[in-house]
Amino acid sequence: MKTILFIYGTRPEAIKMAPLIKELQKYPNLFDVKICLTGQHREMLDQTNDFFDISCDYDLNLMTPNQTLFNITAQCLMGLEKILDTLSPDLIFVQGDTSSVMAGALSGAYKKIPVAHLEAGLRSGNKYSPFPEEINRIITGHIANYHFAPTLMAMENLKNEGITDNVYIVGNTVIDALHLGLNIINHNDNLKKYQEYFHFLDFSNRIVLVTGHRRESFGSGFEQICQAIVTVAKEYQDVQFVYPVHLNPLVQEPVNRILENKKNIYLLRPLDYPFLLFLLEKCYYVLTDSGGIQEEAPTLGKPVLVMRDVTERQEGIDAGTALLIGTKYENIVSSMKELLENSSSYFKMANAVNPYGDGTASVKIAEILKKEFLK
């Protein structure tokens, strides 16, 4: 039996780890699955684990007021040292590009423990956009022993950096999580509570789901994003704009100042993962700067307008499921209006094939581990 330690600390990591954890737990005679939470996104992290019925074995509980990248990285490394000394796992799993991913991979390297990187090979080509995610995934990619890439492009990115051993194209586990989550939500006993939560929305009218929190958009970027939403909302009074607002004060201030108390704009507290999934399934299209939602929305036939200048998820842009529009006011307004007015533009994006997989990534990874790692 091999002990596998999953290290993660944010909601996106929890979502993408969950289906793989559940899959490996099906083989208790082969894998002893242990979970370490770094906990820099405390509330959202716990809610996601509860939804997928996952409990942790170790919790660093790093979240502090006004935490910095220096704080998170240093505390994470110190905490992981003690856990690795006690547990001595055979394999460490990290996912994506957060600071806990980089610290988890680095701690494995310091202890000479093999590291597996889930969602490996994403690159924007600009180490400061997104920041610090691009730096984190580059470092992790050069440490990891096993690379589970979501697409051929991700594999090519690794190859271009000289990383060719133990690289596997498996799709993205976020699609696995999407299917798993919707099965839970749409169970008859659960559906009613989601409908009641969004009682203020008219689901017979179109809904635009907005998410935005990227550091590189702080300041002028968020000002223009918010002004663009106001402009389009005034022109399309029958369209509902729903924005679960990130708790970061640098997001809260411009969003509340510009978008609050507008008739058809609804500012919500950050949504638990299942409530966000429910809304994603009901919306018309998505306006976002987030990463995972660029992968999730196309599975449900929802076009994605990406408010960033570069994206490490170029596959969606190439496939036509997403459109890169930046943070300029004029671009956001014109792109939003195009999807609201032009049905051919809308359905071209809505019907494009999702390049991020079919929801079987976790099964593929489990089979690879049984065949390659266990031997």
Describe the protein.
With 375 residues, the chain is an alpha/beta fold. The protein has 2 domains: 2-172 and 358-373, Rossmann fold (3-Layer(aba) Sandwich); 188-350, Rossmann fold (3-Layer(aba) Sandwich). The chain has 16 helices and 13 strands. Strands 3-2-1-4-5-6-7 form a 7-stranded parallel β-sheet, with helices on both faces. The longest helix is centred in the N-terminal third of the chain and has 19 residues, at 69-87. It is globular and about 60 Å long.
**Helical coverage, percent range:** 40-55%
Major sheet description: 7 strands, parallel
Mean pLDDT: 93
CATH C-level category of the largest domain = Alpha Beta
Would you report the number of β strands?
A: 13
Q: Which geometry do the CA atoms define? A: globular
C-alpha-based Rg, rounded: 20 Å
**Binned strand content:** 5-15%
Structural classification: alpha/beta
Count of discrete domains: 2
Distance between the termini: 11 Å
Quote the CATH topology of the largest domain: Rossmann fold
CATH homologous superfamily (4th level) name of the largest domain:
Glycogen Phosphorylase B
Q: Are there runs of 5+ residues with pLDDT below 50, and where?
A: none
The H/E string reads EHEHEHEHEHEHEHHEHEHEHEHEHEHHH
Count of separate DSSP helical elements: 16
